């Protein structure tokens, strides 16, 4: 039985007070917050790993301005940004939205989730049918717009399944031999010598493989 393909829909929500929170104070200190992963992400409680880009000197207290963040632990700091582990519990209005998306519509959130002044960007993954149900639920309840709708792949592995065995073989050999390193450690002619084929064949296999990967990522 063929699996039903999953899609990733990126939603944008304006941060103009529709959730009852004032984000202005937070973004006086912060340029951008990217939630890069979730150790726990439910309608009841969250433990998130976030990259916070500061406007000036880092101020960990700023992360608690919204009230629903209870604890912040800095994991790393570099070049005006901090990597934080953030603990908290969403307020009811956000908990209800998360619960509907996960439990009723059988979708899940992808990362990164992005918060910037005036906007929140949220990637949601599910079947086309279930994503349409989410849009129906949001209509009239939450101001939003759809930024993109693309195919969803798990950590890049499914993308490679579109390659022919020969394309995969050439791509793997090129990567292993340093063709994609900067600077390159090998070239098409050297790869062709190792695989006992023409450099034209190697170049064609690599170009076709790269094109399939790019199409899968951005179509």
Write the layout of secondary structure elements.
Elements: E1 7-14, H1 24-29, E2 30-41, E3 46-54, E4 69-78, E5 81-88, H2 92-104, E6 108-109, E7 113-116, E8 119-126, H3 128-138, E9 145-151, H4 157-160, H5 165-177, H6 188-195, H7 199-218
Antiparallel strand pairs: 1-8, 1-9, 2-3, 2-7, 3-5, 4-5, 6-8, 7-8
Helix pairs in contact: 5-7, 6-7
Give a verbal description of the structure.
- With 219 residues, the chain is α+β, with helices and mostly antiparallel strands.
- It folds into two domains: 7-151, no CATH class; 157-218, Arc Repressor Mutant, subunit A (Orthogonal Bundle).
- The protein is 34% helix and 31% strand.
- It contains seven helices and nine strands, in the order E-H-E-E-E-E-H-E-E-E-H-E-H-H-H-H.
- It has helices spanning 24-29, 92-104, 128-138, 157-160, 165-177, 188-195, 199-218, and strands at 7-14, 30-41, 46-54, 69-78, 81-88, 108-109, 113-116, 119-126, 145-151.
- Strands 1, 2, 3, 4, 5, 6, 7, 8 and 9 form a nine-stranded antiparallel beta sheet that branches.
- 16% of the residues are buried.
Short recap of the structure:
The chain has 219 residues and is an alpha+beta fold. It has helices at 24-29, 92-104, 128-138, 157-160, 165-177, 188-195, 199-218; strands at 7-14, 30-41, 46-54, 69-78, 81-88, 108-109, 113-116, 119-126, 145-151.
């Amino acid at each position: 039985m063929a699996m039903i393909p999953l899609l990733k829909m990126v939603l944008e929500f304006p941060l103009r007070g529709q959730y009852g929170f004032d984000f202005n104070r937070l973004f006086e200190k912060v340029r951008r917050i990217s939630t890069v992963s979730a150790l726990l992400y439910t309608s009841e409680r969250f433990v998130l790993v976030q990259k916070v880009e500061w406007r000036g000197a880092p101020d960990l207290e700023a992360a608690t301005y919204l009230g629903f963040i209870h604890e912040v632990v800095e994991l790393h700091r570099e070049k005006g940004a901090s990597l934080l582990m953030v603990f908290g519990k969403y307020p009811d209005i956000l908990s209800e939205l998360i619960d509907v998306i996960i439990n009723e519509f059988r979708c899940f959130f992808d990362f990164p989730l992005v918060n910037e002044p005036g906007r929140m960007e949220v990637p949601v993954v599910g079947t086309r049918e279930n994503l349409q149900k989410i849009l129906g639920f949001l209509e009239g309840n939450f101001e939003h717009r759809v930024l993109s709708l693309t195919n969803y792949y798990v950590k890049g592995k499914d993308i490679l399944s579109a390659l022919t065995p020969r394309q995969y073989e050439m791509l793997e050999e090129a990567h292993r031999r340093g063709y994609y390193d900067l600077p390159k450690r090998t070239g098409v002619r050297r790869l062709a010598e190792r695989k006992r084929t023409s450099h034209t064949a190697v170049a064609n296999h690599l170009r076709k493989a790269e094109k399939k990967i790019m199409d899968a990522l951005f179509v």
